[in-house]
Amino acid sequence: MKLDSTIAAVVTGGASGLGEATARALAAKGVKVAIFDLQAEKGEKVAAEIGGVFCEVNVTSDESVDAGFAKARAANGQESVLVCCAGTGNAMKTASRSKEDGSIKHFSLEAFNWLIQINLVGTFRCVAKSAAGMLTLDPGVDGERGAIVMTASVAAEDGQIGQAAYSASKGGVVGMTLPIARDLMGEGIRVNTILPGIFNTPLMQGAPQQVKDNLAASVPFPKRLGNASEYANLALTMIENGYFNGEDVRLDGAIRMAPR
Question: What is the residue-averaged pLDDT of the chain?
Answer without folding.
Answer: 96
